C-alpha cells in the first residue's frame, strides 16, 4: 500500500500505544477508504481555518525565512523544561490554574503546519464543551500539559512537539510523522476532582442517590491540596464537606463511624486553617473546636490539634488562663511540639505586660484623683480670699448691710458665716424673694448717735 493512501482498520487500537511508539499488529479492511471518508466538509470547518498555520508573507516582516510555526514560537513562552510545549495566551483567564486530576470542559481545534484547515475540531462533535478527565489516557500529553497551565475562561494557543503529540509515526493521512501540532484551546470551567464533578448540578432527588460520603471525601481531599498555599480556599472546601456530612442520612453503625472519623478530620483542618497567620480568625476556631467536642466526643477532646488550635485562638482573644489550660492538654498529648511551648512562653510575657499596664493605669488614675483634689482645694482657697476681702471691706466701710449670694459649695457658705462672726458681725442666711443670701450686718453701736 502506498504511504499516502488511507486504510480502514478492522479493530480499534489504543491512542496511547501510538503515542508511546509501541509496536502492534493492525488488521486492515479490504475496501479502500476514499477521500470523503476522512475529509471534513469545507463549509463545516471554514470558520476554524487558521492562517497562522499557512504562513502568508508579511511585507513588513523581517522574518520571512521562518516557517509559520517558528514565527508563532517567537511570541510564545515554554511551559515545560524542554520547551516542547509552547504557549501564547489569547484571552486571559480568571482564578487559579487547573489542578491535577481535575475534570475540564473545553473546546479545541488542532492543526498541522501549512494546513490552515484543522484535522480535529471539538465543535463539530458537540456544541457543548468536551469533558476531559486529566491524568487519563484520552488526550495527547502536550494538550494535557497545556490545559493544566490554564485558568477558567482562558483561551490559548499551544505548539506541541511531536514527542508530546503523535510521535514519530503521526496518524495518517491527516497527521504526518514527527509533526508539530498547533492546538487552540478554550477552557470554560473545571471541577477539581472527578468525584465532585456535577454534584451541584444534580436535583435533590439525584443528590440522595449520590454517594455523599464519597463527595465529602473528595472535597476534603481538595481542601488538603490547598492547605499549604491557600488556607482560605482550603477552608471553603472543608466547609462544603462539613455541610454534606451534617445532612447525611446514615443507614448503619459502620457509616456513622466513617462519618464521625471524617468529621473529626474536617473540624481539625478547619481549626488549623483559621489559625494560620494570613487567615487568623480566633472566633471561628473556637466555634469549630466546640462543635467537634459536641459531635465527636472524647476523640475530639483528646485531639492535640484541636486543643492546640483552641489554645492559640484563646491567646489571641486575651483569654490567657483558658488558653494555658488548652495548651497544657495539647502539650501532654505531644510533649515534643515546640510551638506549644512557644505559645506558653508568650502567654507568660503577655501576662506580665497586662500586669504592668494595669499598674500604670492605676497609678495614673490615683495621680489624677490627687491632682483633682489639690486643684479643688486651690480653687476654694482663691474664692475664699475674694469673699474674705469683701467681708473686710464691708467691716471697715460705712455700709450697714451686705448681702452675699449663697456660694455653690457648703465650705464657702460655712466660711462666710464663720469669718463674719469672727469679725463681730451679725451673719445668717436669709431669703430674698426666691434667692437665698448670706446677710452680714454690723451690731448696733450707741456711740454712733
UniProtKB/TrEMBL annotation:
Keywords: Isomerase, Repeat, Rotamase, TPR repeat
Pfam families: FKBP_C
An example Gene Ontology molecular-function term: peptidyl-prolyl cis-trans isomerase activity
GO cellular component annotations of the record: cytoplasm
Protein name per UniProt: peptidylprolyl isomerase
Domain PPIase FKBP-type: 101-191
PROSITE patterns in the cross-refs: FKBP_PPIASE
InterPro entries assigned to the protein according to its UniProt record, in alphabetical order: FKBP6/shu, PPIase_dom_sf, PPIase_FKBP_dom, TPR-like_helical_dom_sf
GO biological-process terms attached to the record: piRNA processing; spermatogenesis
Catalysed reactions, semicolon-separated: [protein]-peptidylproline (omega=180) = [protein]-peptidylproline (omega=0)
Top-rank taxon, per record: Eukaryota
EC nos: 5.2.1.8
Class of this enzyme: isomerase
Protein family membership: Belongs to the FKBP6 family.
Amino acid at each position: 500500500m502506498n504511504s499516502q493512501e488511507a486504510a480502514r482498520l478492522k479493530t480499534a487500537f489504543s491512542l496511547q500505544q501510538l503515542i508511546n511508539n509501541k509496536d502492534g499488529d493492525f488488521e486492515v479492511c479490504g475496501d479502500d477508504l476514499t477521500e470523503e471518508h476522512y475529509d471534513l466538509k469545507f463549509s463545516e470547518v471554514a470558520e476554524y481555518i487558521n492562517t497562522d498555520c499557512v504562513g502568508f508573507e508579511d511585507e513588513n516582516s523581517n522574518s520571512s525565512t521562518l516557517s509559520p510555526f517558528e514565527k508563532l514560537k517567537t511570541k510564545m513562552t515554554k511551559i515545560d523544561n524542554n520547551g516542547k510545549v509552547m504557549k501564547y495566551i489569547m484571552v486571559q483567564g480568571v482564578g487559579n490554574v487547573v489542578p491535577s486530576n481535575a475534570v475540564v470542559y473545553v473546546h479545541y481545534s488542532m492543526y498541522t503546519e501549512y494546513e490552515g484547515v484543522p484535522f480535529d475540531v471539538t465543535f463539530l462533535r458537540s456544541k457543548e464543551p468536551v469533558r476531559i478527565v486529566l491524568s487519563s489516557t484520552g488526550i495527547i500529553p502536550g494538550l494535557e500539559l497545556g490545559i493544566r497551565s490554564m485558568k477558567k475562561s482562558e483561551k490559548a494557543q499551544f505548539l506541541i512537539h511531536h514527542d508530546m503529540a503523535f510521535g514519530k509515526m503521526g496518524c495518517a493521512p491527516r497527521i504526518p510523522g514527527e509533526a508539530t501540532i498547533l492546538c487552540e484551546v478554550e477552557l470554560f470551567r473545571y471541577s477539581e476532582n472527578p468525584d465532585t464533578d456535577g454534584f451541584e448540578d444534580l436535583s435533590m432527588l439525584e443528590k440522595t442517590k449520590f454517594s455523599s460520603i464519597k463527595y465529602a471525601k473528595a472535597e476534603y481531599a481538595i481542601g488538603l491540596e490547598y492547605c499549604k498555599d491557600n488556607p482560605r480556599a482550603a477552608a471553603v472546601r472543608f466547609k462544603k464537606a462539613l455541610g454534606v456530612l451534617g445532612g447525611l442520612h446514615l443507614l448503619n453503625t459502620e457509616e456513622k463511624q466513617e462519618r464521625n472519623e471524617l468529621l473529626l478530620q474536617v473540624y481539625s483542618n478547619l481549626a488549623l486553617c483559621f489559625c494560620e497567620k494570613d487567615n487568623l480568625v480566633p472566633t471561628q476556631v473556637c466555634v469549630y473546636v466546640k462543635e467537634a467536642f459536641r459531635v465527636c466526643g472524647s476523640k475530639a477532646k483528646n485531639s492535640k490539634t484541636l486543643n492546640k488550635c483552641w489554645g492559640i485562638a484563646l491567646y489571641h482573644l486575651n483569654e490567657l488562663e483558658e488558653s494555658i489550660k488548652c495548651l497544657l492538654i495539647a502539650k501532654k498529648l505531644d510533649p515534643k511540639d515546640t510551638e506549644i511551648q512557644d505559645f506558653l512562653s508568650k502567654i507568660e510575657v503577655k501576662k506580665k505586660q497586662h500586669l504592668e499596664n494595669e499598674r500604670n493605669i492605676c497609678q495614673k488614675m490615683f495621680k489624677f484623683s490627687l491632682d483633682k483634689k489639690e486643684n479643688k482645694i486651690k480653687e476654694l482657697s482663691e474664692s475664699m480670699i475674694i469673699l474674705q476681702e469683701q467681708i473686710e471691706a464691708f467691716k471697715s466701710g460705712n455700709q450697714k448691710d451686705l448681702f452675699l449670694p449663697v456660694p455653690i459649695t457648703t465650705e464657702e457658705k460655712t466660711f462666710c458665716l464663720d469669718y463674719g462672726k469672727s469679725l463681730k458681725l451679725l451673719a445668717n442666711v436669709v431669703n430674698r424673694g426666691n434667692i437665698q443670701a448670706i446677710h452680714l450686718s454690723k451690731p448696733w453701736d450707741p456711740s454712733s448717735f
